[in-house]
Amino acid sequence: MSDLRVAVLGVGMMGGFHVEALSQRVRGATVTVINDFDRARATAIAASVGARVEDDPFAAIGAPDVDAVVIASPGPAHEKQVLACLDRGIPVLCEKPLTTDPDTALEVVRAEHRAGRRLVQLGFMRRFDPEYAAAKELIDSGDIGRVLLLHCTHRNMANGPHFDSAMMITDSVVHEVDVARFLLGEEITSVQVIKPTPTSAAPDGVFDPMMVIFRTESGVIVTVEIFVRAQIGYEVRTEVVGERGSTMFGLDQHGVTKIVSGDGGRWGGAVPPGFVERFATAYHHELQRWVDAARDGGIDGPGAWDGYAAVAVCAAGVQAVRTGEVVPVTLGSSELSRG
Ligand SMILES: NC(=O)c1ccc[n+]([C@@H]2O[C@H](COP(=O)([O-])OP(=O)(O)OC[C@H]3O[C@@H](n4cnc5c(N)ncnc54)[C@H](O)[C@@H]3O)[C@@H](O)[C@H]2O)c1
Q1: How many angstroms separate the CA atoms of 276 and 219, rounded?
Q2: What CATH superfamily is the domain 4-126+281-302?
Q3: Predicted structure pTM score
């Protein structure tokens, strides 16, 4: 079978990473077309992998040497780019968010439904991380019994002043939204946000850290600590508490180390500096499985409905930051969730 010919739209941090992975590590794919608003960047990255540059993202999607598309442009560009892929009937891997508001996200779900097959995959890479996959298997096995609680911790080393409380929800907590839906296999029905005294590293008016609390359809409570100026590194930990057991992961994943030092020794593991280091394996599995599926004209991972649900929960979360209230999440017709 010939290689999947891929166009990558947006080659900043994430798109550049995907181009490199598709060209160097993933089997069965060739990056043929690069598009970015920044032509110089597009040209440099295209040259590094022998691809050509297309200035118009929609021309890239429609190009005869393109079988599938990776979208890593900023969120506001996603809706039209995904719809263009659906119009052409080709598989697309779209980084979160699917769109910037629930109504337009549901429109994408409807458009895919009309197309009659699953073509839109969302870049929720944690589903492909071995630790999350093992936790999902354990939960589904029933060995820890019915799940009652899910505790998530999401800490970043630092973020610029632009990264406000709303972005903490839409850019960071969005991953915990998908993790909760993935692990629990049910929808989130409400969101509440509790705001402790902010760190002195937070700009004026930014609530950092925050505690975000989801309730699910069956009554599971999910707590998310979001702290994006924690100064240490990238710490993503999860604990699932069931009736007969619990599982915790994401802690000291590089191993526990004991080191003798001048002040009497220290104990602990390494903390990865960023998400690329922490989730390198997950990104690899995500891309490989998407390429394998796209060569057969489909996808293999979280879909348009998952993207829509995440946008809807995050919109409620942003409202919950503002109002301090418990904000309900109401999703469109669940008929569409089957894709
Ligand atoms: N899955 C993850 O862990 C993860 C991590 C980081 C970012 N993301 C997502 O990836 C996307 C890109 O984020 P990033 O951090 O790489 O941003 P970035 O700013 O580093 O890169 C975005 C690139 O897109 C280009 N661009 C702008 N408008 C465009 C358009 N209309 N069409 C094509 N290109 C356009 C910009 O010039 C820039 O080069 C975002 O949606 C973000 O939420 C996902």
Answers
A1: 33
A2: NAD(P)-binding Rossmann-like Domain (3.40.50.720)
A3: 0.94
